[in-house]
Amino acid sequence: MKIAVDGPAGAGKSTISKEVAKKLGIIYIDTGAMYRAIGLAAVRHGIDTADAEGVKSILGEVEVSISHEGGVQQIFLNGENVSEEIRLPEISVAASNVATIPEVRLKLVELQRRLAASCDVIMDGRDIGTYVLPDAELKIFLTASVEERAKRRLRELLEKGVDTDFESVRADMEYRDKNDSGREFAPLKAAEDSIILDNTSLTAEESAEEICRLAHDRGEVAQK
């Protein structure tokens, strides 16, 4: 089974998808981490991530790969585990910028599709249901109000010791929303056959339970 989970920044895609993967015994693939790795590579090279030509100039020397250790995804940039570094706020913006570049998306989509072809997966991102896995048996578009999403992300960053505030996080989120939905190639949008799940008032556990229920329903239909 392939489960595609799309949605804006801060909707809880990663947290919820990880929980669904545990409950269903399938592999979780965080595609956003791959774009963060490309963004990190550009930042390390001193390239403005809004400079498409500059980013494209380093793609040939950038290798992104993932592994799962104890059920937890680890992201590697040229063999270096950068799973923690890619979560810094400045890399969030970098990831959103490089994700608008078609050459970057094409490079990573090939890897994402290979992974999905090898096992049962739940994959989250911005264009999984519409572009990466259009044949996914279950497509979820996960969303929440921008205020709630900003609160969640702020709490997550503060727990990691990142010095920031609500207004900064909200502004970053609104920038990413506009960037992700406004790009020409594979923009953020709900697939026509996706199920919209607004989890503004739901806990991560409740959201995960609902996706598992939907997955079981789809699985039973497929078996019949």
How would the blueprint of this fold be written?
Elements: E1 2-6, H1 13-24, E2 27-30, H2 31-44, H3 52-56, E3 64-69, E4 72-77, E5 80-81, H4 89-98, H5 102-118, E6 121-125, H6 128-132, E7 138-143, H7 146-159, H8 166-182, E8 195-198, H9 204-223
Parallel strand pairs: 1-6, 1-7, 2-6, 7-8
Antiparallel strand pairs: 3-4, 4-5
Helix pairs in contact: 1-9, 2-4, 2-5, 4-8, 7-8
Summarize the structure.
This protein is α/β, with parallel strands linked by helices and 224 residues long. A 5-stranded parallel β-sheet has the order 2-6-1-7-8, with helices on both faces. Strands 3-4-5 form a 3-stranded antiparallel β-sheet.
Characterize the structure shown.
- With 224 residues, the protein is of the alpha/beta class.
- The chain has one domain (2-219): P-loop containing nucleotide triphosphate hydrolases (Rossmann fold), CATH 3.40.50.
- The chain is 51% helix and 17% strand.
- The protein is built from nine helices and eight strands.
- The strands form two sheets. The chain has a five-stranded parallel β-sheet, sandwiched between helices. Strands 3-4-5 form a three-stranded antiparallel β-sheet.
- Strand 4 and strand 5 (80-81) form a beta hairpin.
